[in-house]
Amino acid sequence: MQGGLEMGRAAALPFVQFRKGDDEVSGGAGAHEQFERVRVQLRAQLGLEVYSSWFGRMKLAEAARGLVRLSVPTAFLRSWINSHYLELITDLWKREDPALMRLEIVVRSATRSTRSTPETEPAPARNITRSSQATLASGTAVSTKATPTKPTSADAAKNQSVLGSPLDSRYTFDSFVEGPPNRVAFAAARTVAESPSASLRFNPLFVHASVGLGKTHLLQAIAAEALKRNPQMRVVYLTAEYFMWRFATAIRDNNALTLKEQLRDIDLLIIDDMQFLQGKSIQHEFCHLINMLLDSARQVVVAADRPAAELESLEPRVRSRLHGGVSLEMSSPDMDMRLRMLQQRLASARVEDQSLDIPANVLEHVARAVTGSGRELEGAFNQLLFRRSFEPQLSIERIDELLGHMFRPGDPKRVRIEDIQRIVARHYNVSKTELLSNRRTRTIVKPRQVAMYLSKIMTPRSLPEIGRRFGGRDHTTVLHAVRKIEELSGADQTLAQELELLRRLISDQA
Ligand SMILES: Nc1ncnc2c1ncn2[C@@H]1O[C@H](COP(=O)(O)OP(=O)(O)OP(=O)(O)O)[C@@H](O)[C@H]1O
């Protein structure tokens, strides 16, 4: 997870730009060439297969003053590369640039990849890099044979270190901020964790939400809580990528059967980032596993960044199995939740540094301005902490300056109706004059309605005000447009994607 501290440091460096919603960030002139040469050498040394598994999606994030950051899409990749290849990459880079002082692997902002799948075949896995004191975790199967008859928390912790990826101990139900946008999913998650057998009526439980809205947090909280209540329970939390990697390596090492046997033993299977599950044979294995678990009344929980029906890379039978349970969505936190998240972060930071204080009005301001995901709030908060260490008196204006790149649609200072009109008109290839005119041909009505809809959801302007800005129209016309586009985009995937693209273009312009 990319912390705000890193963003803070980067912001202080010259010729480094963080562009919101953009994966790739430019560095100094020769950095891209150096990166390319390092990639070529990695490929030559490791072979194409290993290279594309681990480095296929690596990008140059920034390069300045002896610091190079390479970004990868998932925390697991970062962790794996850090522990296995960091030295090699650093050496290779130093050969290219002896001035290199430090090379870091970061997880890149997921804003743009919200709805995308990996461009390359499965990078082995994502997860879980942080330290943990979770009672038992997974990321791999827990075999009954390997598990003592009555495991205690300590046994479980031991298993965890043997069996792999620990849970993040920060991800608990207590630290999960609940509110209207995630209330139902949260309640379902609690039920699964507290009484898995009672929850079998929604099996599998499928949770979907856009990036950074707490899926991993919620899923790991389920695992942690289930294990806390019953250390004997065999719980497996893993990402789809990790699942793929486990199978791929098991097949390579001729022990796929053992792995399957181990997986059969589990009581609660939790799969994160389902959108990354790819490959026919792996999906076949996955489907088989899910069927077996569901048929034997074991609980399965799955999360993805979109509804199951939209997981196009999944085989129809996998999708259909996911449809068989309950599907719940979590959406963006509201103002009250954002404020509580920030207050919670402050309280945890204070555990380490009691002198730490951020005035309530500053927290409120940030909660109002950073209207994105929990991850963005976390980044904003870390950035604030970092800045405060050398600018103790941060004014609201200065905070706006520092966090401006995180301000979202809805921030009155950032999105202007004029920008929306210009971008929408360009997208649909009509002129702005036509957009504001009274012409009622279909090719113009649709862009006009889209622009009105976006003006409503991306700015705080009232319906009458939007009407005025669209050639003096009545507010009921705007309301009609908003409802129409909402209705159409619910049924029309292409339009929904168009809207998302436009939102991104507009936010990036703002
Ligand atoms: N409702 C919430 N309460 C507390 N923290 C939250 C909440 N939602 C998100 N966060 C925090 O935001 C950060 C990102 O959340 P998380 O990694 O769970 O998101 P995600 O939906 O899994 O994202 P991705 O799709 O990128 O994997 C985490 O630090 C998490 O603790």
From TrEMBL:
Residues 201-328 form the AAA+ ATPase domain. Residues 389-510 are annotated as: Domain IV, binds dsDNA. It is found in: Cytoplasm. ATP binds at residues 212, 214-216. Residues 111-161 are annotated as: Disordered. Residues 1-122 are annotated as: Domain I, interacts with DnaA modulators. One of its GO terms (cellular component) is plasma membrane. Keywords: ATP-binding, Cytoplasm, DNA replication, DNA-binding, Lipid-binding, Nucleotide-binding. Residues 128-161 have a biased composition (Polar residues). The keyword Coiled coil does not apply. The keyword Membrane does not apply. It comes from the Bacteria. Belongs to the DnaA family. Plays an essential role in the initiation and regulation of chromosomal replication. ATP-DnaA binds to the origin of replication (oriC) to initiate formation of the DNA replication initiation complex once per cell cycle. Binds the DnaA box (a 9 base pair repeat at the origin) and separates the double-stranded (ds)DNA. Forms a right-handed helical filament on oriC DNA; dsDNA binds to the exterior of the filament while single-stranded (ss)DNA is stabiized in the filament's interior. Oligomerizes as a right-handed, spiral filament on DNA at oriC. PANTHER family: CHROMOSOMAL REPLICATION INITIATOR PROTEIN DNAA. This is Chromosomal replication initiator protein DnaA. The lineage of its organism: Bacteria, Pseudomonadati, Pseudomonadota, Alphaproteobacteria, Hyphomicrobiales.
